[in-house]
């Protein structure tokens, strides 16, 4: 039985790219498990592995396939194994810094049209974390949508929406509850035709439960958690699933730690970006300079000082992300002391104080 790849998000652009390699078979990565993959082609699902030539030519981890990628493969005569020979150019790619490996990238999903950033309205609620997710999402090339879950457990939804007004500037916000079904229809409106959506967020915010609601069946394992949102991961591997109403969804494991690999601060912090352009000096640091529009907005109550602090923190984090360990260390020394000479002077001064 043939598989209609249009139902798995095939676009005209991908079809044209695949047509240039008529001897290879087009497929989409639906699952990733360490060294192995599952792909779907016109002949159906099949296990897949990396071709030796492709593996040898790969220079960085982000060149390897991830869930959502369109790949060109060769298939064994018995259709039991596909060998990935090439990853086609990505329309979008969701990436974060690998935990414990600052500067290294870790792919989350590729070729996504809409990213649902899930955050629950009880103990998981955190505006600064949402700023990080939005920064990462805007940089991916996909469109972010904020999904506030567990509305049935929140007594002050309007107050929390107001608290996120600056953070979610220019972004659609959906308030929903998998328990009552509220908001699920709003989610479904984004997944039509050959659209691909992905759910991201911390562990225990209800991503798998919402995806089950879209699927209309209990496909993903869910687990009851305490009301403080402290729960174990229910999703351990990335997985692409076809929805009965059309479109596909990518489920991802919950993220305990979110290190930003790259990001678009101009969109995630559009309010601050607009103010920066109004500062008197082009190299304004937004601290004590005269004519600083950012500080003027804070003084007038139009901008929250905490939001500026988040902006600076992410800006600094991203400036470090492409540096080597030695470059990051030198940058921190320069930032805190002004240079290595000044750092040694400060160290000697502290030693003299201790001897007294």
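Q: What amino acid sequence fits the structure above?
A:
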């Amino acid at each position: 039985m043939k598989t209609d790849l249009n139902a798995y998000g095939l676009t005209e652009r991908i079809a044209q790219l695949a047509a240039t390699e008529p001897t290879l078979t087009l497929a989409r990565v639906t699952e990733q498990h360490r060294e192995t993959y599952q792909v779907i082609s016109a002949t159906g699902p099949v296990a897949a592995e990396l071709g030796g030539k492709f593996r040898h030519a790969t220079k960085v981890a982000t060149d390897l396939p991830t869930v959502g990628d369109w790949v060109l493969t060769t298939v064994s005569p018995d259709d039991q194994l596909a060998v990935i020979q090439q990853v086609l150019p990505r329309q979008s790619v969701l990436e974060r810094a690998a935990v414990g490996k600052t500067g290294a990238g870790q792919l989350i999903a590729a070729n996504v049209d809409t990213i649902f950033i899930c955050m629950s309205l009880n103990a998981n609620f955190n505006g600064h974390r949402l700023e990080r997710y939005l920064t990462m999402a805007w940089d991916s090339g996909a469109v972010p949508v904020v999904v506030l879950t567990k509305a049935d457990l929140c007594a002050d939804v309007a107050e929390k929406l107001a608290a996120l007004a600056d953070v979610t500037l220019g972004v659609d916000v959906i308030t929903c509850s998998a328990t009552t079904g509220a908001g699920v229809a709003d989610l479904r409106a984004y997944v039509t035709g050959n659209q691909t959506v992905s759910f991201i967020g911390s562990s225990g915010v209800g991503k798998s439960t919402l995806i089950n609601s879209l699927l209309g069946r209990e496909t993903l394992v869910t687990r009851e958690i305490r009301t403080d949102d402290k729960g174990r991961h229910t999703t351990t591997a990335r997985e692409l699933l076809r929805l009965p109403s059309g479109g596909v969804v990518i489920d991802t494991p919950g993220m305990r730690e979110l290190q930003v690999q790259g990001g678009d601060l101009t969109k995630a912090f559009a309010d601050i970006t607009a103010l920066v352009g109004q500062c008197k000096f082009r190299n304004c640091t937004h601290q004590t300079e005269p004519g600083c529009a950012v500080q003027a907005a804070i003084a007038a109550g139009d901008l929250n000082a905490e939001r500026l602090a988040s902006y600076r923190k992410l800006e600094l984090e991203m400036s470090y992300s492409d540096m080597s360990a030695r470059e990051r260390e030198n940058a921190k020394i320069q930032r805190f002391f002004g240079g290595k000479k000044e750092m040694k002077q400060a160290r000697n001064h502290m030693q003299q104080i201790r001897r007294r």
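Q: And what stands out in the fold?
A: The chain has three domains: 5-87, 93-251, 265-355.
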